[in-house]
Amino acid sequence: MWSWISVALSGFISISALENHHRRQAVLFKMVSLVLLLAMITEPLFSRSMPAIWITIGLVIAMLADGLHTFHLRPKLCFLGFLFAQLCYSKAFWIQLSGNMVWWLPALLIATSIVTFFLLLPQIDTLLFPVTIMGLVLVQLAWASGEVLLQRPSLASLAGFVGSLLFILSALLLAIHDYRHSLPWGQYWISGSYLLAQSLMVASVVLLF
């Protein structure tokens, strides 16, 4: 319990620092949050749990991408970092699947994504390519985690699915807030949903042990 409270507290300090343009402090406490998440995943990692290994790799890549994004450095490399982190998270779910898949879930996710895309098109007209690529990666992450939830209903699989949906929400808010117009309390919503999504990814593994 105290570990999760520490993650939330350091995340809140990081978001507040970023909102007040204290970038070094923001990066420091964001790294503290992610390191605490890494510490919580050590037991399943040492047990050589493949989902834990992929989640860990994703967290490490996300730490590097977060640092680049906060200081507005290497935007292309930062974007690729976020993509690879999401792919690592999705790999952690794909390897848990066995047997037949249901096809209504990806159909529902794709249909919802298309509707959302066209609704937000006026807001993201200059970001069509990166938004499309990131959207495809996040949809397949939601598909993978949703399949795990359907095949093995549990609190852990539910945490993973909700986390993947929060990644989608965070990415949409980021695209609008950073590249179109500022949202009220934008950094809190974006960073808060992103950190919560990361925490739920870790919880989806930790709760299995």
UniProtKB/TrEMBL annotation:
UniProt KW Membrane keyword: yes
Keywords: Membrane, Transmembrane, Transmembrane helix
Membrane topology: Multi-pass membrane protein
Main location: membrane
Record's keyword annotation contains Phosphoprotein: no
Chain ranges passing through the membrane: 27-46, 52-70, 77-95, 101-120, 127-143, 155-176, 188-208
Subcellular location: Membrane
GO cellular component, one term: membrane
GO function terms (MF aspect): hydrolase activity
Pfam families associated with the record: YhhN
Top-rank taxon: Bacteria
Family: Belongs to the TMEM86 family.
Protein name: Lysoplasmalogenase
Species in which this protein is naturally found: Vibrio metschnikovii
